[in-house]
Structures are given as structure tokens and as C-alpha cells.
Amino acid sequence: MNKITSYGVISQIYILAQNPEVGLVSRSFYEYSTLDSVRVDFLIKKFGKTSILKIENHDFKYCSRLFVREGLVLKLLEKECQYDTETPTTSNNRTKYYVPEIDINQNEGKLLGLAVRYRRTKIIKQILKAHKIKPDIKLHKSERKIILHPKAFMVGLFSKGLCDMLEEEGPDLMELFSTNGMKKYTYDCILYEFCKRENTNYVKLIIEKGADVHAFNNLSLRLSCEKGNLEIVKHLVENGADIHAKDNDSLKFATKFGNLDVFKYLVEKGANIHAKNEDAFKKGYFYLVKSGVDICSFGYDLLKNACAEGHLGIFKYLIQNSIDIHENNDKALRMANIRFNTDDFLKIASRNGNFHVIKYLNKNGANIASIGNKNPSNNDLNRLSDIFNYIRVYSTTSSHKNRTTGYASNSNTNFNGDIHELNQSTHY
């Protein structure tokens, strides 16, 4: 019986019955029927949102004593019941009611949305401050009732334009939006935008106001790791952002864009450095080793990335830490080959100095003859003669010389260069 007479069931029976005498069925029915929230639903169900506040013959058409209970009226307005602003009221009643001439929330709040989109700051402030307006009407206190503006209804706010205005106007404008009940989705959107702009002060303010740092799968954190803003990254993590989201993408972005400070911080906070992340190998290897990671377990991937991009310092460090340069049939060396994979790495060699990587590999025992026998063009030979000479001399003098042919067969380059000088190059 207690379950049957619960608030939810009784209130729904009263509302759907559309008969106020149902309130006399029992004490529970009577008590619930007197609650403003139940009476509001009852009236809306009976008369509709568009009619409940309709004026006729200088009075409310359906509920002449409606404003005796001010709380009831406020709840009707909260339910977005439309009040009549056109019908004049000159009744002889003792109480007069004054309502705003302008509905600031017309068309479901689109007025504010348009003002934000077109950056009409003055209009925006007027709308956001409207609920504080208290008209000074000179009537005896007992003879007047004033209906104030509701708070602004915020929907479809353009986040980029909103952030532009917030930066221009300062935190006071942000406070106006918050006071009017800014939607959570809007907070989340502008948090991302301010992370993108690296506006630390507003990032902190938006989080304080209730933005969700997990929104859009922790997108704000991933973006901040890409930007390299350590202060924002720390603040997001301290407020619960997930550094492991999307297979440790935060670590990936930090290393991809060379943000070592952010990389270190994420590792200290427990980011998974063992996740498949080639960028982390390339730019974070020193810190990985310092943190006790067995980089030998990543041997081929580390060497491959270092070779492909000509990072001689990475090579030295990896080889000194026992990476096997012969792994996968000398593929690391072949990745450094200027003719490997339809000349893609020829460009890398000329741009990033892979010549010194090749020399260092050879000096440490790699099979330079495994580079292959593809013949370069004359243009390549003229532009990169040092690299070709070195490979030609060492491939023909090694025990694997039968695997290669002389690269200089079509070139006028001088084969009597100082090989000793090349080996002693100060570049490595």
C-alpha cells in the first residue's frame, strides 16, 4: 500500500484525473494536491502552456486568483508558459500585475544565440542582466505585483565567437553567463577552445565553473599535449583528465611534437610507455631509459625510426644500450638507404644527414652490402656524391662485395676521397 500511495503515483492520478475533487479522496491526495509543482502540472495539463496565462475581461481567463500564490506563478513561468503581453489590463481589481513587454527568451532563446554569433556584446549584456531588473512603479505595495524577466535561456551558442568576447570583456562577462545557468555542453566546448588558444587563466576558470575535463574523450588534454603547454596539462590532469584515453594518445601527441617536458610529466603520472607509439620511441628514448624501460625490447622499431629520420644521436644511444643493429636482416640499415622504398628516404637522407647514420652503422658492424644494387640517377650522384662514394668503397671492400655493384659506374665523381676523414667525421 505504501508503494501505491507514493508521491509519483498519487500526483499523476491527481493530474490525469483533471478533477480537483480527487484531492478529497484521502489526506495524502489532499497534501500532494496543494503542492505548487503538482498544481502547475495539473493546470498545464488542463489548459495548456499557451492558454493558462491568457487575459480576458481584465483578468486571467481561467484562474482569476492565480497570483494569490506567487510561487505557483513562478513555477508556471519556469515551465515556459506564455504570458499575454498584448491584452491591456485596466481592471478594477485591487491588485495589478506587471509583466515585461519583451520576452528575452523568444524562439527558445535564439535571440541570445544570434547576439553571440554576431558579437553584439551590448545586447548580450542586456539579456543576461534582464532578470535583475526591478521596475520602479509608484503604487501602493499591496496594489502591485511585478513579474520579472526570467534568466536567459542559452542554447546553440557559437563557442569560437563566445571565447573571442570572453577574452575581450574579461571574467565579468563569464560570470554573467554562469549566473544565467550556462549549459554543460557549452562549458565543455569553450574549454576545448581555450586549450587550443593556450589561455591558461580561462581554462582554470571554465573548469572551476563546471566544465568536464573528460568531454569528447579527453580531447582538451590531448590538444594541450600537442601544444606543449605543461601548465594546462597539469591542471587538466589534477582535475581528473585521463592520460590513458584513446590508447595513450596524450603521450603520443606530446612526443610527436617534441614536447619533452609534457612527456616526462605524463610518464611520471603513469602513462603507458609500452603502448605502440613510434613517436615516443623517436623523441622520448633518453627519458625512457632513465625511467628504467627496457628499450632493447623495442629494438627494431627504435632503429627503424632513427634510421628513417637520420637521428644519429639516437643511434649512438641505442647501440650503446645493446640494440642489435643486425636485427631483421639489417633492415634498420636498409631503412637508411637513400634508394629504399622508391626514393622516399633519398629526400630524408639529404635533409636530415643520414650519411652519418650509415657511417656509424657500418663502423659498428652493420652489413653495408645489404643496401642493395639499385642504381641512382646522375642527378642523385652529383648531389649526394659523398654518400655514394662511401657506400661504393665499403661495399666493394667488405666480405659481402658480391651483393653490390659500384654506384659510381655512371658518374664522374672522384673515388679517391679521404675515407679516413669520412670515418673521423666530427658530425657524430
UniProtKB/TrEMBL annotation:
It comes from the Eukaryota. It holds the Pfam family Ank_2. Residues 400-428 are annotated as: Disordered. Keywords: ANK repeat, Repeat. ANK repeats lie at residues 216-248, 246-278. This is Uncharacterized protein.
